[in-house]
Amino acid sequence: MDLMSLFGSFSVSGALRGMAKGAIVGALSGGVIGGLDGYTVRGSFDDALDGAVNGALMGAAIGGLTGGIGGGFQKFFSGLGLLVKLRLLNVLFTLNAAGTIAGVATAKSIPQGIFRSGLGILGFASILSLRQAILAKHELLLEFQRLGQDAAQGAVVPKQGLGGVRIQQVLGRRITASTDPAQDFMDGSRALELKGPFVNPNTLEPIPNPNISDIATGIQLAVTSKPYIHTFFVDTLGLTDDQAIQLAGLLAGISKVRVIR
Asked: E strand or H helix at 191, and its extent?
């Protein structure tokens, strides 16, 4: 991405919201940490108060700056590839390690050194947790694309990918996108058909005012006309609770139908 497109993705409102949120969170967390850090020097209230004030000011400044950057360039950061995100985490890991070593080395007492090393450990744990979340999200995206491969269109259909992922979650095992347009997925040798979710195929926004009776009739006809399908999964995502209950009631008693909510 060049500089023109980078700054073209900048959002002023996002930056202001991020700056405000970052400053508030930074001031609160900085004040608490700074106060505890100051108290561990000599167990003095005055040291704790000085540490809290300095920590709050520094936390507000750092939180506001990073929050503003993150909020302003949120679209840019969300579009970064997996490897880039992992490299950025490696940078944070290194900075956390350097900060922890420097903090412990400059500690004015043993309790303060122990406290700062504990903060460093918490920092490491947070980075590792974030790394796992990024990897999990990436894995979900890969599954979304794999299951969204529509044999009839020869392309990824977001709605099918979403429904396929939800079927996997219900079954507790992996399924595959069918290479035969006659069915949507294969669960081993069993053919599966997806009905729903009731969202726009591309934007995944809920479909307004769906006709539940017509949907139920269409599913009943599909069950009759496709005897080779092992299970029809009806994904009610996009419907209201009342609509989902109504549809499930109309499909009750059909052994091959399994409703997902």
From this structure: strand 190-195
Give the H/E segment covering residue 57.
helix 45-72
Which residue type sits at 207?
I
Q: What is the DSSP letter of 199?
A: B
Which residue from 116, 69, 101 is spatially nearest to 88, judged by alpha carbons? 69
- What's the CA gap between 239 and 207, in Å, rounded? 8
* Residue 15 token pair: 């930056």
Instruction: Render pLDDT for 1-46 as a digit per residue (tens, 0 to 9).
Output: 444 555 566 788 888 898 999 889 989 998 999 999 998 988 889 8
Contact 122, 99 (CB under 8 A): no
CB count, 10 Å around CB of 165? 17
List, in sequence order, every residue forming a beta bridge with 214; answer none if it has no partner: none
The pTM score is: 0.64
Cα angle 201-205-210, degrees, rounded to a multiple of 5: 85
Q: What is the rounded radius of gyration, in angstroms, for the C-alpha atoms of the chain? A: 26
Tell me the C-alpha distance between 113 and 235, whole Å.
55
**Beta bridge mates, 199:** 206
Nearest to 231 by CA among 261, 254, 201, 198: 254
